[in-house]
Write a sequence for this structure.
């Protein structure tokens, strides 16, 4: 399960509307315990795929290192990522699956048809590595009292 | 030193986020890490012992792949290594490679392609090959227009287009995929609309970018055949080298004024563009179509030849232009053919290649890197900006303006300058006064630079080149001057 505060939930959806018709992307920081990925903060990231930002995203490793360093300072971990699908459903694509390497992390996808965020879904990457990895649907719990 | 472990790999480090190791180099540190946590190894390395392609390793803020000593780089206490698997994806599906036999044609498609299907050389099998084919067109301009239209009509299932330009009215004399109402619109969007309008059964994949050494291999990866419709040497060499490196045929075409060329390069046994032209011409020697002009129908002729070659390669039928350079002369309407040989010493496709990855093609072609600040001088010739010339004229100074274009260009638009075409300058140089300040101009600044360099060598000491030529004057000073 993914738990997230309403403000963070709305912020990742708003990010997708802002970057429409391009894909937005960012990192979910928080804690991971007993099968629950709890989002405590979100960090926006730049999409480096400027050649086809309407249907691809990539986060620069340099940016991840910076985000990870800040997270360590706050005792948080990278627990997932989010991105938007402009004019596409909130369902992982073959590209999303092929490029997903963070087992145990939540991959949150928001559908943004015609610039308005509609459905937001989360998919947990499970398995032990590249050979047996799998996306499973992950319930999203929007929690008003998130322990910070 | 410390090694930061990303969340997914912590199951192999007993949940530790950071592992400390004693090491002299990056390689030692990674070896020490996998020695103490052996399960990590198969997640970080391939069976051949190389770092997996999606695993990035950073020493502090530097990607180790770009450190001069790579894994042998020495490390000290206080350094940190970060292991960062890549984060990427996107709504677009990976362009799938589908076997032609797995393709099916609907009744509508069968009717659409009936003139193909009744020919045994195409037939159902050939049409399925076309549908399964993935062809990338570099450029959606003069050559790209006819070739993309015909490939779409023929039923090539996936058409990739790479272009960053917007449609300009001066394109419409030959770029027939765009319409007057598309002026100002992205060429990709305009082309996609026409192509899917012509054939809704195909998929158009748009790459809104300049093809570069950084993105070419990544983009080529998803295609079977590359068709080169570019208009400049750096991109032509880039397309060729990237085709050789990725093992994809390069269907080449080029045009200038009344003449065109076409060939198929970079097939397994055939020559490549570099076997024909190992070195680019010096910059400025071969004018571009923007400077020299091009007969509007010529890209139609050459682009359709390229489309024909692409379709023959897909069908595996006929004799493609491999090892043959077709020369088209539209004025005489002659088609000639030159035999080309694969050069065993070719730096890219020869037996001992020296170019094994993409290089800086601007530099290779002798084109200085673009800078934000306009150059003040080029080869000792001061470059005058149009605004500066305007200021001087307004201030009552009367610099002598020398126009080195052709008389028919002067008829289209002029700044009232003294006309001596570049080719006649040597014979007519005595018309000019060496003591006078001279501002030389042409259409965009290339020919006038050559003229100014000639004058400087001939003893003229106060020669300026008008940067950007009469086109820049129209853009920056006086839009009433038509651009051509």
């Amino acid at each position: 399960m993914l738990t997230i505060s309403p403000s963070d939930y709305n912020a990742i959806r708003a990010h997708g509307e802002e970057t429409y018709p391009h894909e937005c992307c960012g990192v979910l920081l928080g804690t991971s315990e007993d099968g629950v990925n709890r989002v405590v903060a979100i960090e926006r990231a730049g999409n480096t795929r400027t050649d086809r930002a309407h249907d691809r995203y990539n986060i620069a490793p340099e940016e991840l290192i910076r985000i990870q360093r800040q997270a360590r300072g706050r005792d948080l971990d990278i627990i997932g990522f989010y991105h938007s699908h402009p004019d596409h459903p909130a369902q992982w694509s073959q590209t999303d699956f092929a490029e997903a390497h963070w087992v145990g992390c939540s991959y949150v996808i928001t559908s943004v048809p015609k610039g308005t965020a509609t459905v937001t879904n989360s998919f947990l990457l499970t398995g032990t590595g590249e050979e047996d990895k799998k996306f499973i649907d992950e319930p999203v719990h929007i929690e008003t009292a998130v322990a910070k | 030193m410390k090694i930061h472990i990303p969340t997914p790999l912590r199951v192999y480090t007993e949940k530790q986020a950071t592992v400390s190791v004693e090491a002299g180099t990056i390689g030692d540190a990674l070896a020490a890490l996998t020695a103490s946590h052996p399960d990590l190894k198969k997640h970080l390395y391939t069976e051949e012992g190389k770092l997996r392609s999606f695993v990035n390793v950073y020493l502090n803020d530097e990607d180790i792949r770009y450190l001069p000593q790579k894994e042998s780089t020495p490390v000290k206490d206080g350094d940190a290594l970060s292991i960062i698997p890549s984060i990427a994806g996107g709504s677009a599906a990976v362009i799938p490679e589908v076997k032609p036999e797995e393709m099916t044609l609907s009744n509508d498609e069968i009717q659409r392609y009936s003139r193909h299907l009744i020919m045994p050389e195409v037939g159902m099998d050939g049409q399925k090959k076309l549908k399964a084919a993935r062809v990338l067109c570099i450029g959606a301009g003069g050559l790209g227009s006819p070739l993309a239209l015909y490939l779409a009509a023929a039923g090539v299932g996936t058409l990739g287009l790479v272009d960053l330009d917007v449609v300009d009215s001066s394109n419409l004399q030959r770029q027939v995929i765009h319409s007057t109402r598309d002026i100002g619109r992205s060429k990709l969007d305009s082309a996609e609309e026409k192509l899917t309008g012509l054939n809704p059964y195909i998929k158009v994949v748009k790459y809104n970018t300049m093809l570069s050494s950084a993105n070419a291999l990544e983009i080529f990866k998803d295609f079977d055949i590359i068709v080169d419709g570019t208009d400049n040497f750096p991109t032509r060499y880039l397309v060729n080298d990237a085709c050789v490196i990725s093992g994809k045929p390069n269907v080449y075409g080029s045009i200038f004024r009344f003449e065109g060329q076409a060939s198929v390069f970079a097939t397994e046994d055939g020559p490549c563009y570099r076997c024909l032209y190992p070195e680019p011409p010096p910059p400025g020697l071969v004018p571009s179509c923007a400077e020299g002009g091009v007969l509007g129908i010529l890209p139609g002729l050459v682009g359709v030849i390229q489309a024909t070659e692409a379709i023959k390669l897909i069908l595996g039928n006929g004799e493609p232009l491999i090892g043959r350079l077709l020369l088209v002369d539209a004025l005489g309407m002659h088609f000639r053919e030159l035999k080309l040989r694969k050069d065993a010493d070719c730096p890219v496709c020869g037996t001992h290649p020296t170019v094994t990855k993409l290089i800086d093609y601007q530099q290779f072609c002798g084109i200085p890197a673009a800078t934000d600040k306009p150059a003040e001088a080029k080869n000792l010739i001061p470059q005058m900006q149009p605004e500066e010339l305007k200021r001087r004229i307004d201030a009552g100074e009367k610099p002598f303006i020398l126009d080195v274009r052709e008389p028919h260009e002067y008829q289209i638009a002029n700044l009232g300058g003294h006309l001596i075409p570049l080719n006649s300058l040597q014979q007519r140089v005595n018309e000019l006064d060496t003591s006078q300040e001279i501002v030389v101009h042409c259409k965009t600044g290339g020919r006038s630079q050559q003229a100014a360099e000639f004058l400087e060598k001939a003893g003229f000491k106060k020669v300026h080149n008008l940067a950007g030529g009469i086109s820049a004057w129209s853009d920056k000073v006086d839009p009433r001057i038509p651009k051509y």
Q: What stands out?
A: Chain A touches chain B through 49 residues (CB under 8 Å). The mean pLDDT of chain A is 89. The beta strands of chain A are 2-4, 25-33, 36-45, 57-59, 77-86, 106-112, 120-126, 134-138, 140-142.
